């Protein structure tokens, strides 16, 4: 039995995300620039956080792993853990999601061309559920 999930609509064979947060701003038409290093080089990290009864499962462990990984690749994390917890709760509530997942992605953001990280001073983060 397939269950229709609130907050997601079919769009050309893919799910269209109805509400996302990019750099702390809620949007129904969220977009990341094509020259974001996460898009062009895969320069970033992500966590997929299960939601049970609308609550994040082991969020502290997911965020600890994200921060440890970010340290290894010298990627600054531009948010407090409490901000992410509140954001994911808000996304789940707005989307009517009690069982599902939230995705948290952090990229190095936009920067000069090439593989070096000098000049990449504004990480991008986004989350959706």
Question: What does this protein look like?
Answer:
The two termini are 21 Å apart. The protein is built from three helices and eight strands; from the N terminus they run E-E-E-E-H-E-E-H-H-E-E. It is an alpha+beta fold. The protein has a single domain (34-128), classed as Aminotransferase class 4, branched-chain amino acid transferase, N-terminal domain (D-amino Acid Aminotransferase, Chain A, domain 1, 2-Layer Sandwich), CATH 3.30.470. The strands form two sheets. A six-stranded antiparallel sheet has the order 4-3-8-7-5-6.
Offer a concise description of the structure:
By secondary structure, the chain is α+β, with helices and mostly antiparallel strands.
Q: Can you name the CATH architecture?
A: 2-Layer Sandwich
How would a crystallographer describe the biggest sheet?
A: 6 strands, antiparallel
What is the number of helices? 3
Low confidence ranges: 8-16
Count of distinct strands: 8
Give keywords.
single chain, 129 residues, alpha+beta, D-amino Acid Aminotransferase, Chain A, domain 1, six-stranded antiparallel β-sheet, 8 strands, globular
Question: How are the elements arranged and paired?
Answer:
Layout: E1 8-11, E2 14-17, E3 20-22, E4 25-27, H1 37-40, E5 44-52, E6 55-56, H2 59-72, H3 81-95, E7 100-107, E8 124-128
Antiparallel strand pairs: 1-2, 3-4, 3-8, 5-6, 5-7, 7-8
């Amino acid at each position: 039995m397939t269950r229709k999930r609130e907050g997601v609509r079919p769009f050309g064979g893919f799910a269209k995300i109805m509400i996302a947060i990019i750099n702390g701003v809620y949007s129904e038409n969220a977009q990341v620039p094509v020259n974001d290093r996460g898009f062009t080089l895969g320069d970033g990290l992500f966590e997929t956080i299960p939601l049970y009864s609308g609550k994040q499962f082991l969020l502290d462990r997911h965020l600890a792993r994200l921060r440890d990984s970010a340290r290894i690749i010298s990627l600054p994390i531009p948010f407090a853990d409490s901000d992410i917890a509140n954001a994911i709760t808000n996304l789940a509530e707005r989307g009517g999601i009690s069982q599902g997942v939230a995705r948290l992605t952090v990229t190095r953001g936009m920067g000069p061309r090439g593989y070096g990280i000098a000049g990449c001073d504004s990480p991008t983060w986004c989350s959706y559920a």
